[in-house]
Amino acid sequence: MSAPTTHLTELTVRGYEIDALGHVRHTVYLDYAEHARWESLRAAGLSAQTLLTDGVMPIMLETTISYRRELRYDDQVTVGCEFEWGHGKTARITQPLTRLEDGTVAAEVRSVSGLLNLATRKLVADPLDRLRTLATVPEILGL
């Protein structure tokens, strides 16, 4: 298997994402991570419509956030998305959130994800093969 590839999504912290302390609300980090995962899938040629047409959809099974530094209004941020595929039904995803201004890692989101068969409501046995077949640029996902 090839070395993992990190896809980067850039965003700007918006005013409505700030809490009373002046930094990004805790749940917004999950939104940033979700957005970056979908951007990674889209860049690989796996739009939501492509996945739905094939009868599958990625699902999150576990998510952990490690907060390291504050993000504040108008900060420019990159959200990485690195997929680590094993031999089973799941993948691990590591997503550092980094301030562009100074390279500080503000947080890291780590997740376990699977690919749900929408007809059977069970995890796809070989998600690597299924996604590799559907993707137009599978190397973005480390496939």
TrEMBL record:
Q: Which GO terms describe its molecular function?
A: hydrolase activity
The coiled-coil segments of this chain are: none
Task: Provide the alphabetized UniProt keywords.
Answer: Hydrolase
Q: Return the EC number.
A: 3.1.2.-
Task: Name the Pfam families on file.
Answer: 4HBT_2
Name assigned to this protein: Acyl-CoA thioester hydrolase
